[in-house]
Structure formats: C-alpha cells, structure tokens
Amino acid sequence: xxxxxxxxxxxxxxxxxxxxxxxxxxxxxxxxxxxxxxxxxxxxxxxxxxxxxxxxxxxxxxxxxxxxxxxxxxxxxxxxxxxxxxxxxxxxxxxxxxxxxxxxxxxxxxxxxxxxxxxxxxxxxxxxxxxxxxxxxxxxxxxxxxxxxxxxxxxxxxxxxxxxxxxxxxxxxxxxxxxxxxxxxxxxxxxxxxxxxxxxxxxxxxxxxxxxxxxxxxxxxxxxxxxxxxxxxxxxxxxxxxxxxxxxxxxxxxxxxxxxxxxxxxxxxxxxxxxxxxxxxxxxxxxxxxxxxxxx
Amino acid sequence: xxxxxxxxxxxxxxxxxxxxxxxxxxxxxxxxxxxxxxxxxxxxxxxxxxxxxxxxxxxxxxxxxxxxxxxxxxxxxxxxxxxxxxxxxxxxxxxxxxxxxxxxxxxxxxxxxxxxxxxxxxxxxxxxxxxxxxxxxxxxxxxxxxxxxxxxxxxxxxxxxxxxxxxxxxxxxxxxxxxxxxxxxxxxxxxxxxxxxxxxxxxxxxxxxxxxxxxxxxxxxxxxxxxxxxxxxxxxxxxxxxxxxxxxxxxxxxxxxxxxxxxxxxxxxxxxxxxxxxxxxxxxxxxxxxxxxxxxxxxxxxxxxxxxxxxxxxxxxxxx
Lengths: 296, 320
Known about the structure:
The complex is a heterodimer. By secondary structure, chain A is mostly helical. Chain A contains 13 helices and no strands. In chain A, helix 5 (86-122) runs parallel beside helix 8. Chain B is α/β, with parallel strands linked by helices. Chain B has one domain: P-loop containing nucleotide triphosphate hydrolases (Rossmann fold, 3-Layer(aba) Sandwich), CATH 3.40.50.300. Helix content of chain B is 29%, strand content 25%. Chain B contains 9 helices and 12 strands. In chain B, strands 6-7-8-3-9-10-12-11 form an 8-stranded mixed β-sheet, with helices on both faces. In chain B, a hairpin with a 6-residue loop joins strand 1 (4-18) and strand 2 (25-39). In chain B, helix 3 packs parallel to helix 5 (154-166). The longest helix of chain B has 18 residues, at 184-201. The two termini of chain B are 34 Å apart. Classes of the chains: A mainly alpha, B alpha/beta. The interface between A and B is medium-sized, with 28 and 36 residues.
C-alpha cells in the first residue's frame, strides 16, 4: 500500500491529480459547460443578441419561433406580445438571473457563514443566539416576506438581490454550524490551540478549509434557489420590473397567451431549468472533488 | 533535588452539566483536588479507568482548559500568567487518535511547520530545514513532506504528531494514550521512539494510558487516578511490586494474561463505576473496595506519603 502511494506521489503532481479528477467527473463537465455557456452569453450579451431587447415592433407581435411554419430567421425564437425579439430578451435575461443568483448567494453566504461558524466554534451564548435567529428565520415564509418587502419598498433589481440575500442565509448557517461543531472537536484543533495559534488563525487555517466544501455545495444550491425565487417573484409581478428582461418576468408576461403560444413560456422555462440543473450538477461535483477522503 | 517542571496544587476542574430544562444545573468534578509534581527528565504515567479525569487533568496542564481552583506552576511560573506562545514553547501534547489529530487539508510539511509559523519564524528555508530535521528525528522519510495525512499509515501519522509536538523543542510533552489507537506491532515502535527522543532531547513526559504494560515499559513514576483524585503515586518499580491502594491492586490484577485458558481475571470490583456527578460519600472508592471498613463510607481518607510513595486510603491510617 505504502509503496503504491509513494509511486503515485512521485509520478503525479498535485495539479495533475486535480485535473484528472475534474475531467473524470461527468456531472461537473456537463454542469460546468452549461454554466460557462450561460456566463459567457451573459457577459457578451450586447455582442451576440441579434436585436435590441427593449425595441418594440408592434407590427411584428407574437411571431412564432423559426421551427414553426409561420416563423422566420429574422426572429429565431419569435417575438413577444410587444414585438420584442425573444432570443435577445432571453440572452439579456441570463444576465439578470446570474446576477441575482450570485449576488443573493454572496450576501446570504457571508451572513450564514459568519453566524454558523461563530455559533459552532464558540458555542454557549453565541450558539444560543444564532440558533434562535435561525429558528426565527426558518419560521418566516420566504416568498411571503419577500413579497411584502418588495411591495413596501418597490421592486427593483437591487432590492430583489438584497431581500433574497437577507432571506436565504439559513441553510448556510445551519450547515456551517454543524460542520464547524464537528471539526471543532477534532484533535487537530486542540493541537493548534496547544501550539499557541490565535483564534483567528484556527478559524482560517484549521476550521474554514475543512468546512468550505460544504459551503460550495450550499452556495450552488442557494444560487439555484435564488434564481427560481426571483423567477417566482417576477412572475407575481413583484420582482424585477418591466421592461427588464428577466426569465421569470417573461414567463409571467407569456402566461395569458399560454394556450395558443406555448413557446412564450416554454423557452424561458427551459432556460431556467437548464441553468438551475447545471448549477446543481456543478455543486455536487465540487463536493465530490474537494472531499479529502477522495484524494488519491 | 531535581528541577520541578510541573507543580500542581489542589487542582480542581468542574464542568457544569445541564440536567434538562427544569432540573437546574449541576457541577461535575472531573478533577477534584489533585496535587502533582513532575521533575525534569521524569516520565510520569497517569493511569485509571475511563472517565476518571486523566484527560481533563492533562488539558489543564496544557493550558487548554482553565482550572476551576488550585494552582499549576510550570517551571516555577503560574500557568495562568504564562503568555500563550511561551506556554506553547514549554509544553506540547501528543494526542491519542492520529486520525483526528492531523488536519486532512494540510500537507505533512505544513502541519509540522505550524508551531514555528505561530512563533513567528518567518524564514522559509530555515523552517523547511527544521521540519526535515524533525521528520528525520522521528523516522519519517523526507519524501512525505508534500504528502497529505490520508496517504500515511497510523504509525506514520503518529510520528507526524510527535514531530509537530517536538519541532519547537518543548521541555514537557503530554501524551494522551499515544499508542492505544495503533496496531500492536506499531505500538512498540512509537514507544521506543518516545523513549529515544526523551534521552536525546532531555524531555519530561506525562503519559496517560490504560495499558499497564506500556506504563511499566516507559514510565519512571506512576500516578493512579480514581474519580478525579490521585489515590496513589509511586515509582514504577515500587508500584508494580508493592501496590498499596486496593484500587491499584485491582487494576494490576485486571491485566489480561496471554494464556486464554486462564479466563478473565476477577478483580472483585463489580461492574459499576460510580456516577461522577454524584460521587459516593467518604472515600469515593468504598462501594467497590474489598477492604472497605465502616468509616470508609463517611470519612474521606487523608493522603499518607512514605518517601516517594503516596497513598490515599484508610488502610494506612496511623493506628487511631
């Protein structure tokens, strides 16, 4: 065993092992490909969008996509009820969705990680307060609170990101708390204390590296969650405000014509589904790859 | 008289136990009035059943848990006054389970270098040289420098833990069951390593162990603990030849023999270890003691020291 280990050690550098594990994982490859595509599309939206997503061509309303007999290559995915090019709106919508997903996950991740790690590491009173906050937060219905807040302060992109960020930290806090609690009782934390490490150093070099793979998984879940919630809020008319091209808003605007023009909601729906699926695949894979027991 | 490395007086450590929402809190005396001195170069073994407070005492000595009352002096200085980094340079632990004492995310090199980094030794080259020296000292091949802990065997991991403890050349090493998580074949290697290192580096050891064979092999003095108190201390030879406390005798009798036909020794203790939240009155050992006398249940025994041999039992009271 040790002979094999030493051989693999000598023949492979750390980065080559890492590369092999990333490229050998199908889920990660599929997820990463879709997410990367979405990010590239979002970044280069002005370059690749065939039309202005806000330009209304009232003479060309509800043109079906190109695969329909009435469709044309002028509008590949057709136009909506105001004659705006659907493909362009979809491309610009990727920007909104990713921005909201990543933004909300960043805010909630920061809040949840700080609270959870503090509760798990310090225990006692700190833990009691944080656990109480988590319970309070869990007893609030997210969509209802988000709706109420947005209804009071008015919906805009920034407001939606902030509201979702302040509402989705519970899972971060719960998971970070329990994994910190588990790592905290390990002997290497006691050893670090005994060699004189400061609390900051213990938290950053002993605790965080061992809980961060959970963080990645939760972050991807919450990005997906935030994207879906944004779609739901926009669908209810209290999320991103028109004429911004949000995917949820597109579904909402298309729902009246659902029976006769089903592609109006299928296209943004499929886009949402694919993006959320890809983010989840990426998260699962990231956990598999970074878990120390799978090293080697 | 040799230099006193550790001088603990009347050390007590309580834990607050919550007994449920409406039943209030209670104090558990994990360590209850322990006096202990350790001289330079000594190997003191702490033995006793699970839950008797050995590990808690070790944590107090390491400064990981503050004592509830009493004083601990380390090289003549009260432990609570010693700054964190100076304390870390003086006394270091080696833990029982080498599978949980190494951070799985760090390489062996950086695990062993951590104590030096904390002490502010910034020079990368000299740090690496010291780590490699120490790895050589504990018998780890240098190619493991960039390995991760999960690529190592249990014995190698324990060697890494020893290297981490020794890299700053502490004077006292507290080993909490250093061999109990290891294979029998590896145990002796680690014990011999500890012994060699002690001679080479002039270390003082406190070794916590269940394994009396280990204790006999490595210790110079043995302290027997029962329910948070030290009930007997003596030199290893004296203690193994002439155990005085009934509990020590029972412990020594309970060692299994290699011959399975001899069965499990009957140590007359009965099975029940008393609940440490609610210790027995008088001498806490009396419910299990074969020599119990009526007043054992009411009066706690005073310690009696005969030369270096200390025992806490009514059997050795002066005739009165």
